[in-house]
Amino acid sequence: MLTTIKCELKSFEDLAHSFAVKELAANREEHDRYPFGPFFDSVVTKAHEVGLLGATLPEECGGIGQDISALCIILDHICAADASLGGIIFTNALSQEIILAAGNKDLLADIMGNAADARAALIACTSFANPAETGTTLEAVKIEDSYLLNGAIEYVVLGGLSGQALVPAKIKGQEGYSYFLVNLSDRGIAKSQPVFSLGLHACSAVDLKLVGVAGKIIGQEGAGAKYFNHASDRMHAAVAAVQCGIMKGSFHEALDYSQQRCQGGKEIINWSGLRMILGQMAVQVKIAEMVVSEAAMAVENQEYQWNLYTRAAALHLSELACKLTTDGIQCLGGNGYMKDYGQEKRFRDAKHVQAFLGLAPMKKLSIIKDMLA
Questions:
Q1: E runs forming strands in the chain
Q2: Where in the sequence is the domain holding 51, given as residue range(s)?
Q3: How confident is the model at residue 371, as a pLDDT?
């Protein structure tokens, strides 16, 4: 849908689709074994080389300099093949958006300019939480113009892979929370083993313990919630794109399988009951495409209450994707539960993605709060 509105985005669609086919589709089951199997370093390296990790990053910072539509198109096609890489792209983009919202463009330029590889360019963060809702257990102590961080923080996505992490911490004696950039090779940081999650296995997270770790403050003290909310409003469109991609992958696998599998002397696609399920899935995929397109354009055009568009889009597609991936499993029968196929992974991924940027019930309450305000 987005490429019909903005034809200049066609090159990003072609890039993401080609990358998904060549690098992800054939090895989806192998990549999903992490952390009990090897991590797909080569895939992340290639994603970095072709620019998938910097779609919305300004050109002066080493990125492509596109708006949210390009990121949505990339996530759509990548997640149709393997949402784990989509989670990595999303988390890194969220960190970049928060830093940009704080006005630290030079910091991003420095990170990208000095990054020798993909890991050094990645920025970990707690992309499955809203710090204002969950609170933060990290405390920052200000010593003249520097800060030392102490405490623990759970489920830092990409924390085991990245060179640095963006973490929320409360400055001692102050209200609210602030964001700090920490070097993950600091001797005061202890990392847990990768946390085995419901879905997105190759988009791994770790728990961190910090003791006297130097942190570089992002933006102003106590303004973390403002930066997160600004980035979150934009990135909810990207969450919707992730779910749309998962839905597309589930539908196309169900459609392909139904044309190959025979039962009762004919391909199962010729059974009316299955055709009804596939028809409903096709309708839901088209609706998802339109929802993502409208949300992305609302952001770029700064339409009235555009932030409500993006959050509503993410919430709606998060629920729709969970229902559609259930149908995707049903279309494959017993094979739908087997790791040889991608349907059970997509079901887990869709449930996992629901938690991006915070808990769904809290998001719904915040929409009503903002509408009343």
A1: 123-124, 139-143, 146-157, 164-171, 178-183, 189-191, 205-218, 262-263, 266-267
A2: 2-121
A3: 79
